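Next up, sample data:
>
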Amino acid sequence: MAIEQGTRQEQPYTGGILKLRLPFVHYRIEYQDFIQGAILSCVPLGITAAMTKFLGIPIEVAVLMVVLNNFLYLLHTSFGDPSVSGWITAGIPLYISFLTGFEAGPERIKALIALQVLVGLIFLVLGATGISKYVIKHFPISMRAGILLGAGFASLMRVFKPTQPFMGKMPIAFSIASILSFFVLFSSRAVSFRNKYGWFAWVASFGIAPGFVVGYLVGLMTGEIKPPSGVFDHFIIAMPFSDMFSSFSAIGLGFPSASTWAAAVSLAIVAYVLAFGDILVLEAMIDDASQARPDENIIFSVPRNHIITSIRNLFQGFCIPFISLCGPQWTGGQALVVNRYKHASRDEEPSYWGGATSLFWGMSIAMVFHPLVQIVLPAKMIGFGLTLLIQGYLCIYLAFAMCHTNVQRGIAGVMGAVLVTANYVKLWGSPLWSGPTLALIIGAILFFALEYNPEKIKEEPIGNIDKEIEKELKEFDSEDND
């Protein structure tokens, strides 16, 4: 089933609020996104180091948890949410600090259970009541842009920081992979090449895959990347379900104590604040994709995203407690999917849902097969670094595109800087005072002091968020012209 030529309709689905879409029924598998996902399958396995070190989880159990977590990402695009979902990554150092305050062993696992379940409940309450939709709807453009800038700066700073392995340990391989990937994805010359040469259009449809492969081969030749080993030691990964449920879940360990639940409350709120920024980034990217492809109506519902994210956190909290928690969006993966969709015609990619879902089908299935993961594992930092670069690039240009006045640009710039540099956790002894929290506080102060005008709000008609934003931008534009 597919939308009709020349119309802007929503892709067919089955069901009600949770819009079920099945492969080969409501969308086709996009093999290019499937391959990109398979290449990136080694990246999520990086969290296993923290799981084994801080939680004492055996590596076989940790790998199984990562695989199951990856399959659960499919809940979003399979049930009507366009999010390419992921972790609440920014808070991982805070989660680890919190967990190490408990005795190693069952008590530490129970602390993670309490934290993740509470995060799930926050998402559930805010999504089911519609509070989240109201907050997102009335969130100022300048502060949206500030969060986007902060997310973009954070990604790029991580790539170019000398202590990081991207440029520090494989400068030749990573530079070549980055240049090729950026040329294919963003160059205006590449756009003309797509239209002129069929072979280039086919290569470019694979996104970061060509750059990754070339960078991998160069890294092997220069010695910056070690050849894969142990490729054929196993075919399918170990699946110790019994050990996982009996030793590392609420099923086997029981529920946390009241004091543990209480201790996790403040950090659960901080985790949601961190995730809130991802939701704003997601909304901006989906809007960008919709403007580029007028043939399909991609509907993003904040409550639906919240409810599915809550289901993942609640289920994993009780059954598969996951140290990075479950977030509403993975910006790097979202950027890959949106970018390919924007530059594809309706014949090349009939629906957004095919690409967004195929990425995780490829990633999740590849992680089950030991040889596939072992082959791409040596170059996992190239794949991870490319997603960070693309994430930074898209977030920054979307932030600039949002702002239509110098006041908005100024607020966004200050917020972005605070988000990536401010961290008073050690100074004030509370996880609440992280960069994202302070960025929201300072952004709100600047908005109300410099930009907010209640008289204009009273004059605005009630309408959907797109009309409100469009009206607001026109008013600001007219003020600039005056």
Observations:
- DSSP finds 26 helices and no strands in the chain.
- Residues 1-6, 458-482 have pLDDT under 50 and may be disordered.
